[in-house]
Design goal:
Blueprint: E1 22-24, E2 31-49, E3 55-60, H1 67-71, E4 79-88, E5 94-101, H2 102-115, E6 126-133, E7 140-148, H3 153-163, H4 169-173, H5 179-187, H6 192-197, H7 216-219
Parallel strand pairs: 1-5
Antiparallel strand pairs: 2-3, 2-4, 2-6, 4-5, 6-7
């Protein structure tokens, strides 16, 4: 049985832009200036173009032991991907989710290993330039460190609003699909509504190049 609700609870407005996340889609021929936030989440992502010509995607946690791949020998090996919250310096400093291949994130790791500074840290992180060239299997990504940019109080508060009190929000956005879900997303009937709303169908580049915070009070003192 449906329940009555108070008028104040009808069509609640999201806090910050937390209820309506933006995705930074990296496209070949473009150069981006971003500032990583917090830590990335890791997953493997299937890209499959069906007989209808539509690109389907699904996430798996273990590509070496996926029953769907065993059932479909022609399925392309899933791409090794990461996603992270970033500040998009080219778009009014909006906070977005950026998904990219290992070739981008390995530069973040290399800097951390060389300096001990956390790329997404609120105190010791900084801005990066990411450039994409080529297309398809020949897509190339370059990442160049620009400068240290400790987060301002305004940026910390904006990020807290995006997280909306959920420290695991990014991991939930990129939730690993079950084998049944992978089968349905890649080979089942194409459902436009699901494809548009599913986070796993957010594509940050046309095709892969090869082949998951707390409250404002916490983030002021915690160097991620």
């Amino acid at each position: 049985m449906s329940e009555y609700v108070d008028w104040s609870d009808v069509a609640p407005k999201p806090s910050g832009n937390g209820g309506n996340l933006d995705f930074l889609r990296l496209k070949s021929g473009n150069t981006y200036k971003i500032r990583p936030l917090h830590k990335p989440v890791h997953f493997y992502k299937y890209f499959h173009r069906g007989e209808d010509g539509k690109l389907r995607t699904a996430l798996t946690g273990d590509p070496t032991d996926c029953p769907v791949a065993a059932e479909h020998p022609g399925l392309r090996k899933p791409a090794n991907r990461y996603a992270i919250f970033v500040i998009d310096r080219n778009d009014g400093n909006k906070i977005k989710v950026m998904e990219a291949p290992v070739s981008v994130f390995k530069h973040f790791r290399d800097r951390f290993e060389a300096t001990g500074q956390k790329p997404g840290g609120n105190k010791d992180g900084g801005d990066w330039q990411i450039k994409i060239t080529g297309s398809g299997l020949k897509t190339e990504y370059s990442a160049t460190y620009l400068k240290d940019t400790p987060l301002t109080q305004e940026e910390l508060e904006a990020f807290s609003a995006v997280m909306d009190g959920d420290r695991e929000r990014l991991g939930k956005i990129y939730r690993i699909d079950s084998p049944e879900e992978i089968e349905k997303k890649l080979f089942g009937p194409f459902e436009d509504d699901d494809a548009q709303s599913s986070p796993t169908n957010e594509i940050s580049s046309s095709e892969p190049a090869a082949a998951s915070t707390g409250s404002g009070e916490e983030s002021n003192d915690f160097n991620w």
